[in-house]
Specification:
Layout lengths: L9 H22 L6 H18 L6 H6 L3 H4 L2 H10 L16 H27 L18 H13 L5 H20 L10
Helix pairs in contact: 1-8, 2-5, 2-6, 2-8, 6-7, 6-8
The structure holds protoporphyrin IX containing FE.
InterPro entries: Haem_Oase-like, Haem_Oase-like_multi-hlx
Keywords: Oxidoreductase
Organism: Acetobacter ghanensis
């Protein structure tokens, strides 16, 4: 039987819909050599800081907390903030918070943040070679307390059974990847339209 987007779970649909932009982002991060030196790595942490700052409010979205009870402890903003301090980096001025969207769009944004914890397994190893660890400079790349796999599976299971609107969720996930790409290409970008 051919899989159509109607029969896919939400998490698979999000994965399919963002596959190309994820690859594009990976390539961009590697092309800029963000893991090639401690100095370049600072740019990566700043990029992550800006993304997690922008989505910080979504981790306390009232509708989402009902669906995902451990949502607040999944939030890595405090960790990446501490990484900025470890590295002595000044906090960027711009504030571009993602507005408290409808729950479906918001979950698309959070899918990107939560999924990136998988890729972080690989990135942790690169960061370690530069001297950054889960207790200094690469705190936000550490696995969730229960482990990466179980944490991700629990998140997917929760979003797959909550009745979110898939089209809105895809819009949110694509916007999230684009946001990260914007910060990659324009550090300190100030966005007029937080979408
Ligand atoms: C060079 C940087 C990156 C590399 C090498 C990378 C690599 C990976 C890998 C290998 C996986 C799959 C892991 C698995 O299935 O066990 C993954 C998943 C994922 N990554 Fe990345 N990643 C990178 C950066 C990012 C960034 C910056 C974001 C978003 C902010 C991101 C978002 C995601 C998402 C959403 C998934 C889950 C896909 C799914 O299974 O639905 N990644 N990444």
């Amino acid at each position: 039987m051919t899989r159509t987007s109607d029969t896919l779970s939400l998490s698979l649909r999000l994965k399919d819909a963002t596959h190309t932009i994820h690859e594009d982002l990976d390539r961009g991060i590697m092309a800029q050599g963000l893991f090639s030196s401690a100095d370049k790595y600072r740019n990566f942490v700043q990029l992550q800081y800006q993304f997690h700052r922008d989505i910080n409010g979504l981790y306390s979205h009232a509708d989402l907390v009902e669906t995902i009870p451990d949502l607040a402890i999944r939030n890595r903003f405090a960790l990446v903030h501490q990484d900025m301090r470890d590295l002595g980096l000044p906090l960027p001025d711009a504030q571009n918070p993602v507005e408290a969207k409808d729950a479906s769009t918001a979950i698309g944004w959070l899918y990107v943040a939560e999924g990136s914890k998988l890729g972080a397994n690989f990135l942790t190893k690169l960061a370690e070679k530069l001297g950054f660890t889960e207790t200094f400079g690469a705190r936000h790349l550490a696995a969730d307390p229960g482990g990466r796999g179980p944490s991700w599976n629990a998140f997917k299971s929760a979003i797959d059974h909550a009745g979110f609107d898939p089209a809105l969720a895809v819009t949110g996930a694509r916007a999230a990847f684009l946001r990260v790409k914007t910060y990659l290409n324009a550090p300190n970008a100030s966005l007029n339209t937080p979408a």
